[in-house]
Amino acid sequence: MSTTTTIETTTDNKTQFLQETLTGLQSEPKFMRSKYFYDATGDRIFQQIMEMEEYYLTNAEMEILRYQSAQLSQAITADGTAFDLIELGAGDATKSIHLLKSLLDNKMEFSYVPIDISEHVISDLEENLPKKLPELDIKGLNGDYFDMLKKATQLSDRRKVVLFMGANIGNMTIADAEDFCSSLKQLLSPNDLLIIGFDLKKNPQQILAAYNDKGGITRSFNLNLLQRINKELDGNFNLENFEHYASYDPASGACKSYLISLKNQIVNIGRQAIHFAENEYIFMEISQKYALSDIDQLAEKTGFKPLQRFFDQHQYFVDAIWKVD
Ligand SMILES: C[S@@+](CC[C@H](N)C(=O)[O-])C[C@H]1O[C@@H](n2cnc3c(N)ncnc32)[C@H](O)[C@@H]1O
């Protein structure tokens, strides 16, 4: 691997975006796949979300990475062998950069393989990370988690350390998270590691505020997916006819966001006409919150052994290290 900027892109991204969008909007109830939030505008709005006062998740995980990267890097490198550090849904890597720095400071032999469905994210990381960390060996992969993970695991026969942070696992239902972790385990080898972030159950008002901010940034983030469909899939959504709604259920730990149709309307996507009744909802995204016991259960059910946990000072968030059992 080298530091040259080669982006691997799946050719059928747009066809898949169209098919999955139509499937979701022709279903009852309607839904969208949250992975499509992240075009260049979505990436930018997500950065604004991360800076919001109400969005405690970023500060909490940032605190873990900023102050405990030395311990994290010690745990990853305990056996002293070279490895590939594969980050799923890397985003702008503002948190993982602390771990990368710590590994480089300790002269560890590793390659960094960020995977992200946003092409903009990968080109940005490949261009900018080497400026901040000149010794970093980086190869970005643009595409869906598992398509790219299969490629990533074939890049070398070194052991793998997979990073899955930012509560990305929370964007799955618990059942989907189990399938995801089981599939991930199938692609890894005994003793490979997973560092995985979970947002913990806490005061329901605090959670709801993070997904229903006063400034309306989360609202814009959700509406931007309709705008993206207009631009890329020849849609004609009128954004003023949809309203953002968020809910949190403290019993299940599921925080959900929806777009509500404000009137009876027809929206065209290419040649397909989609009917929305007044007050009909589109389910946009889940952000699942976990108790610590749920996390250990998830590890055990899916073939991982929990090794260590790293918390922020308020215990809002945890980054757990699991080993393939
Ligand atoms: C919530 S952001 C978190 C970014 C980063 N991990 C952090 O902690 O700040 C989610 C990132 O995952 C990417 N992503 C979402 N679904 C994906 C998928 N199915 N395959 C690959 N990347 C995905 C998005 O493009 C986005 O950059």
TrEMBL record:
<dbReference type="InterPro" id="IPR017804">
    <property type="entry name" value="MeTrfase_EgtD-like"/>
</dbReference>
<keyword id="KW-0808">Transferase</keyword>
<feature type="domain" description="Histidine-specific methyltransferase SAM-dependent">
    <location>
        <begin position="19"/>
        <end position="322"/>
    </location>
</feature>
<dbReference type="InterPro" id="IPR019257">
    <property type="entry name" value="MeTrfase_dom"/>
</dbReference>
<dbReference type="InterPro" id="IPR029063">
    <property type="entry name" value="SAM-dependent_MTases_sf"/>
</dbReference>
<dbReference type="Pfam" id="PF10017">
    <property type="entry name" value="Methyltransf_33"/>
</dbReference>
<protein>
    <submittedName>
        <fullName>L-histidine N(Alpha)-methyltransferase</fullName>
    </submittedName>
</protein>
<keyword id="KW-0489">Methyltransferase</keyword>
<dbReference type="InterPro" id="IPR051128">
    <property type="entry name" value="EgtD_Methyltrsf_superfamily"/>
</dbReference>
